[in-house]
Amino acid sequence: MRLNLHPMQPFLLSVGRHDLLDLTSLESPPNTAGGGAPFSGGAAPSHFAPCSTEDMTLPNSFPRLSRTVALASVMAGTCLALIPQLAAAQVPPPAVNARSWVLIDATSNQVLASGNPAERVEPASLTKLMTAYLVFGALADKKISMDQIVMPSEAVRRVGTDESRMFIEANKPVTVHDLVYGMIIQSGNDAAIALAELVGGSEANFVTMMNAAAQKMGMAQTHFADVNGMPDPQHYTSAGDLGVLSARLIRDFPQYYGIFSIKEFMYNKIKQPNRNRLLWIDPTVDGLKTGHTEAAGYCLIASAKRPAAEGTTRRLVTVMMGETKEHDRVQDSLKMLDYGYQAYEVVRLFHAGQAVSTPRIYKGTATQVKVGVQADQFVTMPRGSANNFKTTVTLNEPLIAPLALGQQVGVATVLAADGKNITSVPVVALVAVPEAGVLGRMWDSLLLSFQKK
């Protein structure tokens, strides 16, 4: 069953320019894997979905709504499928000096623009985003707690003086809270080692957990060899994969994401600033992480949240890899964020709890069921083209009870004017429908048998 829905009216998105502050940057040691300075061209959009196959391409003929769809896995928490922007903006993206880069709308899970997103690169200290993701998971599952005392092992002694450190000491107690803040704000390699040993039992086991998580997220171009990002032939990723990881971290752990916006942290009477200079330049930027080694160059993943229409907000994420100068990663990230907000606009597809259809259901205590979306759903379109799409809903009919609240029953697909797929979202049961009694089930079985004929 397919339902054609009328396109929504576009939101008017207000985007203001901001003044740039010229902050003096201090060069970091060449192989820090710690995010670059301690204080411190653009290709045409490529179409890729980091959660798909190796060539990172979603087919135009998106599957006709079988029970498993790429975007459905987002709701299940197994894979954040980033959907390619199939309609280019009227204004091309600005030229950047990054070797590879990607611009993501995290509100609608769409890739808006990219350059060499699948190219293999060294992640440097951006590795700590996966370390943080697993630590956040352990905190959320109450396997560890922020006030828990940790006794760092002798392994922290191997962190060199030319690496980023929070200056913990072996066999000297420290809280998980301080380790988390030291790893994220100060980019401490020693903190990452201590947390990895706590959560994984050993660094080696934690690295195995990192690679398993990357595989589950669909990060096909990624393999981790350590918890910090020191140079290693078996330690690599891509801008596209890091975009997937960043969006998942923001989405899955909002209760901890705010740590990335903290500008400085003191431990052991040593105060160190956050290396993400955009936190001082743009008040809408609230994360994420910097990285730097000689091989990786200067890297930065930045995220900003700015107001949209109807009291909503819109979050963009940029990934800049392989910049030759610390200043460039800052300015290129800023240019791309501004571009994303100015060249694209967000349209609300559905409100949370909005019913899109009331189909027939068989063998249940009710004969009809309201189906729709559980959360607000948005789509991002090139500015000025928000009316040039249509939404179709396809259901997995016939629907058979019992049906649980939130159970997926189909997919809503957004199509551009030329028929290409823009994005898809799961359609779920908005109410539960228990199974009917014996007589009711027998009667509906008879009805279904006649329909098949």
How would you describe this structure to a colleague?
The chain has 453 residues and is of the alpha+beta class. The protein has a domain at 350-452: Peptidoglycan synthesis regulatory factor (PBP3), Domain 2, CATH 2.60.410.10. The chain is 24% helix and 24% strand. It contains 10 helices and 20 strands. The strands form 6 sheets. The chain has a 6-stranded antiparallel beta sheet, with no helix packed on it. Strands 2-4-3-11-10-9 form a 6-stranded mixed beta sheet, sandwiched between helices. Strand 19 (408-416) and strand 20 (421-429) form a beta hairpin. Residues 6-80 have low confidence and may be disordered.
What are the defining features of this structure?
globular, Peptidoglycan synthesis regulatory factor (PBP3), Domain 2, 24% helix, 453 residues, six-stranded antiparallel sheet, six-stranded mixed sheet, alpha+beta
